Amino acid sequence: MKKKLKQLKLRQLKKVFSFHLPLVLSFHVFPVHTVIASKNDFLLAEANQKINVSFDTSTTQRFNEWEKLMFHSQGMSDTQKLVLVNDFFNKMQWLEDDKVWNKKDYWATPIESLIKNAGDCEDFSIAKYYTLLAMDIPVEQLRLTYVVLDNHQGHMVLFYFPGNGRPPLVLDNLNKKILSKSQRPDIKYMFSFNDTGLWLKGNNTSVPDNENIIRQWTEMVERIKKQ
User: Domains of the chain, with CATH numbers?
Assistant: First the structure.
């Protein structure tokens, strides 16, 4: 029974991503090497690696809901997609990495987060980012963004840029309502990045990650490549 369930979950995940045309993303951010990955292959590779996991009923339900969310997004507006994805992943429990992974700083992939149903701010943001890519939101409109809160605590959110010079919308696991950056005086921008570049504070153009600021991102992508 467990074997059949594992095979079913892999078939379901493949079915989800077979509906999307592959989008090849070149990672120009990193100085040491260039990573090329498809948004579909990124998650499918991990699904293969995780196929030996024994899914319980609640985990299976989360995967089913995740699939339905992406299937039913066809024809929806960007705003509707943002709300669906933000609400879905904000149901996860917030836990520090040492509680979930027994590590000080670990950036989980979307499937890892779904299996654990828990993570910290980076995990929430990464899961939302890749799910929105799979729902055909252009990469140019999404940036994982480091901010500082009023209490001087570092935090990660996901920015969505609506275009026409309008300020980005903030997808956050702390303040669960999607608001414009101009409506979030409690967060101070530090830097942002996506699959195509890194934007430092005060810079309108992307720059190379010469200081390896987002090393954990590189390591997460490398884990997928090796699976």
Answer: 2-225 (3.10.620.30)
